[in-house]
Design a protein that fits this description.
The protein is of the alpha/beta class and about 625 residues long. It has helices at about 15-20, 30-40, 45-65, 70-75, 80-135, 135-140, 145-185, 190-235, 240-245, 245-305, 315-355, 420-425, 450-455, 470-475, 480-490, 495-500, 520-530, 550-560, 595-605, 605-610, and strands spanning about 380-385, 395-400, 405-410, 435-440, 440, 455-460, 465-470, 510, 535-540, 565-570, 580-585, 590-595. The protein folds into three domains: about 30-355, ABC transporter transmembrane region fold (Up-down Bundle), CATH 1.20.1560.10; about 360-455 and about 535-618, P-loop containing nucleotide triphosphate hydrolases (Rossmann fold); about 465-530, no CATH class. It has 20 helices and twelve strands.
């Protein structure tokens, strides 16, 4: 069954409905890890170099510690002072060389892994952004922009944090654990047994904490996305918030979302925070017990009660090295345990990212579909029925046609279904039943890319991108020449104000063209549509938010734009559609009247009421 969604433009309820902090946690950790390793695997040579560096740095650290044993024993021996100093100096130089090698290897490893991590994040961001470009409008209508942004920021950043250090830290920790255990066994078996008695307890405590930490970090990611979404929505609609004195209500709603975020963060970070102290406490207990037992073994070995060849024999140098290894043995367990917080947060974020990547795209480039060389613009709706939700029908058996070059107007009350018709013609949504054809071909059999290349739109809400005026107009057809861009501006009546701008067509627009008036922004939008040369044109309330004088300029631009194009016009100002070839009056998803302006006025029906204002618009 299709997902239950709310139609575009409808209120989706309060913050809980729009940015719900549902419980989200990694559902398949093995799959998420596998996909992440697939991304990092594209830098195999660099990863291999980093692994070699980890082996070197870990090995030198273990070897350097073990080299302390002969030095300490030599200082407590009976050989001459001169020989002792020469031996100690040679060993110290050797230790310095070993440690220096380890430092260099660690620096190389960090540099390489930073490069690998950033390469991996770039690939993930590229794939995620590319996927978003291929998703249907339905996805954007049912997901907040802030939550989508949180996938690019918080979720990807958490993945990067794991790649930067966590993976190799865990690998280094396991190597250190194995190497330390081997050297401990070589140094003294009884002390190794003492250390290993406490190790399972450390691991059990770490596992118990990590298990509970996992679910709360998933909830934290979802709650953070909710907060980001609400902030983005409120900031972008700040004028509306202020004009309706909604500041207090906005703060109240944000406080609720922020409180939810705080609660899950407290739980997640508390569980993550107690990991270190618990591990350190157990490590200190292990260290204390090991040091006491080791001191006793050394004492009895010194007295001769334990033979020098016995597996329990221990010298002072061995004791010093062993207690160091004892602490090192707990450290990898602590580090691995602490890194579980980062891993759980990263995996929760990765699953959110992959959930978007796994969504079904629009399949705009399906090669099995028709790809007509030229579309004339003969549009027919035949018994079209549609609902955004399966249980609620918006359009009911809509039938109409538009021959090439005709102008068809759609009027009616808000929510009558006018914009929905446009959404179906552009295949932002697919119909439930019936048929929409262009030049006799069902639009479901036409590639979406081809279909939309042949449809130009001028919407009420214009959107300008950061860039020059020239680049914004060229958005209508990227291969257009500068001369064609200027010609489109002349056609739309935008050339006059553009040439008076500081840098003309090279003037940089920022903030969605905030330095332009609404009318100027709309004229650029019309120029963009004019440049596309599409045979089908859609004008969706293009003049509803401008003054009468500006509307006259825009209408002149649109008249030139509509010439020889099949045009669908949605307008609340009915004076702008009097010269339409046909006017369709919609109410409750049905066409209740159709005809020319004069014919509909003579009928004295719903169009007459809308035009004359004799009866209030419901």
């Amino acid at each position: 069954m299709p997902p239950q969604i709310t139609p575009p433009g409808r209120n989706r309820g309060g913050p809980a409905a729009r940015f719900g902090t549902e419980k989200v946690k990694p559902k398949d950790m093995k799959k998420a890890i596998g996909r992440l390793l697939g991304y990092i695997g594209k830098d195999k040579p660099k990863v291999a170099l980093a692994v070699i560096c980890v082996l070197i740095s870990t090995g030198t650290n273990l070897a350097g510690t073990y080299m302390q044993r002969p030095i300490i024993n030599c200082l407590g021996g009976a050989i001459s002072a001169g020989d002792t100093m020469r031996y100690v100096m040679l060993m110290l130089l050797a230790m310095a060389g070993v440690y220096l090698t380890g430092v260099i290897a660690m620096m190389i490893q960090q540099r390489v892994m930073i490069r690998v991590s950033q390469n991996t994040l770039k690939r993930i961001r590229d794939d995620l952004f590319g996927k978003l470009q291929g998703l249907s409008v339905r996805y954007y209508d049912t997901n907040s922009a802030g939550d989508m942004m949180s996938r690019f920021t918080n979720d990807v950043d958490n993945i990067g944090l794991m790649f930067d250090s966590t993976i190799l830290q865990i690998f280094s920790g396991m190597l250190t654990l194995v190497g330390t255990l081997a050297l401990m066994l070589r140094t003294n078996l009884p002390l190794t047994v003492v250390t290993l008695i406490i190790a399972p307890l450390v691991a059990r405590v770490a596992a118990a904490i990590a298990k509970n930490t996992r679910k709360y970090f998933g909830r934290q990611q979802a709650a953070l996305g909710a907060v980001n979404g609400y902030i983005e929505e409120t900031i972008s609609g700040q004028k509306v918030v202020k004009v309706f004195n909604h500041e207090a209500k906005a703060k109240e709603e944000f406080a609720k979302l922020n409180e939810d975020l705080r609660d899950v963060q407290v739980r997640a970070n508390f569980l993550g925070g107690i990991m270190g102290p618990c591990m350190n406490a157990l490590s200190q207990a292990n260290y204390t017990i090991t040091a006491f037992v080791g001191a006793m073994l050394t004492f009895f070995t010194k007295l001769g009660k334990i033979g020098a060849s016995s597996f329990a024999a221990l010298d002072i140098g061995g004791l010093s090295v062993f207690v160091t290894y004892s602490r090192q043995f707990s450290r990898p367990i602590n580090e691995i345990s602490n890194q579980m917080n980062v891993i759980m947060s990263a995996l929760a974020g990765a699953e959110r990212v992959f959930a978007v990547m796994d969504m079904e795209p629009e399949a705009a480039h399906d090669t099995n579909l028709v790809n007509p060389e030229r579309i004339r613009g003969d549009v027919v709706f035949n018994n079209v029925t549609f609902g955004y939700n399966p249980d609620k029908t918006i359009l009911k058996n809509i039938s109409m046609y538009a021959h090439p070059g005709q102008k068809i107007a759609l009027v009616g009350s808000t929510g009558a279904g006018k914009t929905t018709i446009i959404n179906l013609l552009t295949r932002f949504y697919d119909i439930n039943s019936g048929e929409i054809t262009i030049d006799g071909v069902d639009i479901r059999d036409i590639n979406r890319e081809t279909l939309r290349e042949n449809i130009a739109m001028v919407l009420q809400d214009t959107h300008l991108f950061t860039g020059t005026v020239m680049e914004n107009i060229r958005y209508g057809r990227l291969d257009a020449t500068d001369a064609e861009v200027r010609a489109a501006a002349v056609t739309s009546c935008a050339h006059m104000f553009i040439k008076n701008m500081p840098d003309g067509y090279d003037t940089v627009l920022t903030g969605d063209g905030s330095n332009l008036s609404q009318g100027q922004r709309q004229l650029l939008n019309i120029a963009r549509a004019a440049l596309s040369k599409a045979p089908i044109l859609i004008l969706d309330e293009a003049t509803s938010s401008v003054d009468t004088r500006t509307e006259q300029h825009i209408n002149r631009g649109m008249d030139a734009l509509m010439e020889n194009r099949t045009t669908f016009v949605i307008a609340h100002r009915l004076s702008t559609i009097r010269n339409s070839d046909a006017i369709m009056v919609l109410e409750h998803g049905e066409i209740i009247e159709r005809g020319t302006h004069e014919e509909l006025l003579e009928m004295r029906g719903r169009y007459y009421e809308l035009y004359t204002g004799i009866k209030e618009l419901e």
